[in-house]
Specification:
The protein is an alpha/beta fold. The chain contains 14 helices and 17 strands. It has two domains: about 170 residues, Rossmann fold; about 200 residues, Rossmann fold (3-Layer(aba) Sandwich).
Length: about 400
């Protein structure tokens, strides 16, 4: 068991909290503040326990000096002030006199947000490369380290693993919740059903290899279903094809023919568009100039009948192009079925969580993970450095 923020006396202590404030920003405005909101529980707990709070986060990708201007966390400090109802100080630097002066001036109940940790990636990738000197320097600013950034828990960076190697450390409430929710899938309750969608098989080879040994059924939809169908010799017309994964799909179908369940029908159209005619057609009847953009009603029925038997379900990736209203039906209908079951239901990050939120089902599942790549790596059976580096109880 890892320590959590509850295991520490925070009174009058400088507490570094690594958050995930990697929010979408357009035209100088935050488009979606959900990731900031998700961190509030941990930050408020620290403030209620009289801590001096130092917040760190990355934002966007910093590959060159020019990237810094559009990826400043200054706007996040302003939104955070509004949400916390307290002033949030901001350090425009990630090291040096300004930052150190602000840290040293903190009083219990104060909050300081440091500029984007990835500013340290130019030059030399010191943050994402877990530079030992940078990790030690950042650790010197605080007395306790709390990791509440689940989205980067699969990466060994200076701002998580680097700091944790020098300070007493614990998990924040968000990471604790995510890690505990996903951990039930390590030894799942059976029947255990997996739903995988999205476009490319190659992104999920490790997940499939790990879960196919545990799952009773893996139902595959979305664009990746067509690579599996092609591997079976089905004509997929102009549907998306991940050619480099064909041999892998053939191998999986040969080794686990009773576990992998593919669509039996789909909604076919001649263009990748919401504004052209489409038809319901068997997967064997796609014309050469057609592409499948959603699962059809018979597949919804098939998937639903399997969900009727499930006691635990993990779902990653939508089953069609849910951004198009004509091709969101499959995802919506299977989500509706999912939440009507008595199974433990876990949505695994990224697009399926966005789809479930848009369609009104996010709050009806057992857990909707905020992680994207981290969730997939966990489901591959990999260790998460951002969690492993935290002090044990």
């Amino acid at each position: 068991m890892k320590k959590t923020i509850r295991d520490f006396d925070l009174n009058n202590k400088k507490v570094i909290i690594r958050c995930d404030f990697n929010v979408p920003i357009k035209d100088g405005a935050i488009v979606d503040d959900n990731r900031i909101v998700q961190s509030l529980t941990t930050i408020k707990y620290a403030l209620e326990h009289n801590a001096k709070v130092i917040l760190m986060s990355h934002l966007g990708r910093i590959k060159e000096e020019a990237d810094k201007e559009k990826n400043s966390l200054k706007i996040v400090s302003q939104r955070l002030s509004e949400l916390l109802l307290v002033p949030v100080k901001f350090s425009s630097t990630t090291h040096g006199a300004e930052l150190e002066s602000l840290v040293n001036s903190l009083k219990p109940g104060d909050v300081l947000l440091m500029e984007n940790t990835r500013f340290e990636d130019v030059p030399g990738k010191k943050e994402s490369g877990n530079d030992p000197e940078l990790g030690a320097y950042w650790a010197s600013l605080g007395e306790i380290f709390i990791n509440d950034a689940f989205g980067t828990a699969h990466r060994a960076h200076a701002s998580n693993v680097g700091i944790a190697s020098h300070l007493p450390s614990g998990l924040g409430f968000l990471v604790e919740k995510e890690y505990n929710a996903l951990s039930v899938l390590v030894e799942p309750t059976h029947p255990f059903v997996v739903i995988l969608g999205g476009s490319k098989v190659s992104d999920k080879i490790g997940v499939i290899e790990n879960l196919v040994k545990k799952a009773d059924k893996i139902m595959i939809g979305g664009g990746m279903a067509y690579t599996f169908l092609k591997a079976k010799g089905v004509n997929i017309g102009k549907s998306i094809l991940d050619e480099e994964s064909l041999e892998f799909c053939k191998k999986m179908l040969n080794e686990y023919p009773d576990r992998i369940v593919l669509p039996v029908d789909n909604l076919a159209t001649k263009e990748y568009s919401n504004d052209v005619p489409y038809r319901e057609v068997s997967v064997n009847e796609l014309a050469d100039d057609e592409m499948g953009l959603d699962i059809g009603p018979k597949t919804v029925e098939l998937f639903s009948s399997i969900l009727d038997t499930a006691k635990m379900v993990f779902w990653n990736g939508p089953l069609g192009v849910y951004e198009f209203s004509n091709f969101t039906k499959g995802t919506e209908q299977v989500l509706s079925k999912l939440v009507s079951t008595s199974a433990t239901t876990i949505l695994g990050g990224g697009d399926i969580v966005a789809a479930s939120s848009k369609l009104g089902y996010k709050d009806k599942v057992s857990h909707a993970s905020t992680g994207g790549g981290v969730t997939l790596e966990f489901m591959e059976g990999k260790e998460l450095p951002g969690v492993v580096s935290i002090s044990d109880k």
